[in-house]
């Protein structure tokens, strides 16, 4: 495929990114329609239940879609869900060629959209800028193929590796630009997860405040149900979007949270605590594709050692608080460097005074754009 093709796929990716955090449980998709070297239609999937990217682009193109080339970041769907199949709409519009970034990992599609287009005589090519197309939909890909949410761990830390002082104070390690960045991360995830100690110590709201965007669900990991009933996340306006994950199975103990409007999920117990594998499976079954893990150190360490963190975002602030502070991960059994959990650096940028480091376990995929 040519540089001409690549240029239009880059534009389709730009459009797709507008939908990140708004389309779950659907993927974020962008589409560009080109005829005789001229863009005649553009679109992206804006919200679950609304028209897909291809339909929006076809609407803009109108009759000029006839014999045009279509650039789309993901294989057009071939099944009827909340909206009609996009492959059928492309066929009806009479397009000449479809260039897709990647095959749809959804088993309901997975090549069937391409097959439908080819059967209708449309030229189909795929794989153009596939790493970039996969990068914008990592949560969708993981959830649709494994049933598990994609977990991003985020923390702000000092140069000497602390997330709080000896007294537990952490507000604020990072600068205002980084806090806005964090709230953008919150807005693009289905849920935000913390441990009960964070709730007791900080009484956080776990909402999106410094930027525009939807509030994620709140998940509190609370093995023995120690969450105080007076905390903000159990207030009248917030409790209905709060989930408490516990091993406590007594319905009478649950009642005080249920009466406030919260949801209680009873999980298997592992090593005296909530089994994170069981919890993630249960959250995945509820349609939660992406989780932003914000703490604390015991919960983060447990998830790290269980291998269920998919991505790391570290905000490194130019501050030092000394050896009495708190580390981001509480880990067990590591006594030598050979046992260290290894990460691969991805994108490294500046955020105000801070440095932002994206990292992945093992070999890193394409860095986010």
> Helical amount among residues, as a percent range?
25-40%
Give the beta-strand count.
16
Rg to the nearest angstrom? 23 Å
Structural class: alpha/beta
What overall form do the CA principal axes indicate? globular
Catalogue the unreliable spans.
Answer: 364-369
Task: State which percent range the strand residues make up.
Answer: 15-25%
Number of helices: 11
Q: What is the H/E order?
A: HEEHEHEHEHHEHEHEEHEEEHEHEEE
Largest sheet: 9 strands, mixed
How far apart the termini lie comes to 22 Å
Overall mean pLDDT: 92
- Walk across the major sheet and give the strand order: 10-9-8-7-13-6-14-16-15
Which descriptors apply to this entry?
5-stranded mixed β-sheet, 369 residues, alpha/beta, 9-stranded mixed β-sheet, 16 strands
């Amino acid at each position: 495929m040519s540089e001409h093709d690549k240029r239009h796929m880059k534009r389709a990716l730009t459009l797709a990114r507008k939908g990140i955090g708004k389309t779950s449980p659907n993927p974020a998709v962008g589409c560009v329609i080109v005829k005789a070297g001229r863009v005649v239609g553009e679109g992206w999937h804006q919200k679950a239940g609304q028209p897909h990217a291809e339909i929006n682009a076809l609407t803009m193109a109108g009759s000029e879609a006839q014999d045009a080339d279509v650039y789309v970041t993901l294989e057009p769907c071939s099944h009827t869900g909340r909206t009609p199949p996009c492959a059928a709409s492309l066929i009806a519009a009479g397009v000449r060629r479809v260039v897709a970034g990647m095959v749809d990992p959804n088993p309901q599609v997975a090549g069937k959209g391409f097959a439908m287009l080819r059967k209708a005589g449309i030229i189909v090519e795929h794989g153009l800028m596939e790493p970039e197309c996969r990068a914008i939909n990592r949560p969708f890909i993981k959830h649709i193929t494994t049933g598990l949410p994609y977990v991003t761990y985020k923390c702000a830390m000092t140069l000497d590796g602390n997330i709080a002082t000896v007294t537990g104070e952490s507000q604020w390690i990072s600068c205002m630009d980084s806090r806005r960045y964090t709230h953008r991360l919150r807005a693009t995830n289905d849920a935000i997860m913390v441990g009960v100690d964070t709730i007791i110590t900080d009484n956080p709201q776990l909402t999106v405040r410094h930027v525009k965007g939807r509030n994620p669900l709140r998940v509190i990991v609370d093995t023995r149900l120690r969450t105080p009933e007076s905390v903000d996340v159990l207030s009248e306006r917030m409790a209905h979007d709060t989930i408490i994950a516990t091993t406590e199975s007594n319905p009478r103990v649950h009642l005080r949270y249920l009466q406030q409007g919260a949801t209680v999920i009873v999980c298997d117990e592992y090593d005296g605590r909530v089994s994170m594998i069981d919890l993630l499976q249960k959250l995945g079954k509820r349609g939660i594709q992406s989780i932003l893990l914000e703490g604390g150190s015991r919960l983060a360490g447990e998830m790290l050692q269980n291998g269920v963190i998919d991505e790391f975002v570290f905000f490194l602030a130019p501050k030092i608080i000394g050896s009495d502070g708190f580390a981001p991960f509480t880990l067990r059994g590591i006594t030598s460097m050979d046992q260290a959990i290894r990460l691969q650096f991805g994108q490294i940028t500046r955020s105000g005074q801070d440095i932002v480091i994206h990292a992945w376990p093992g070999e890193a995929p394409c860095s986010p754009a």
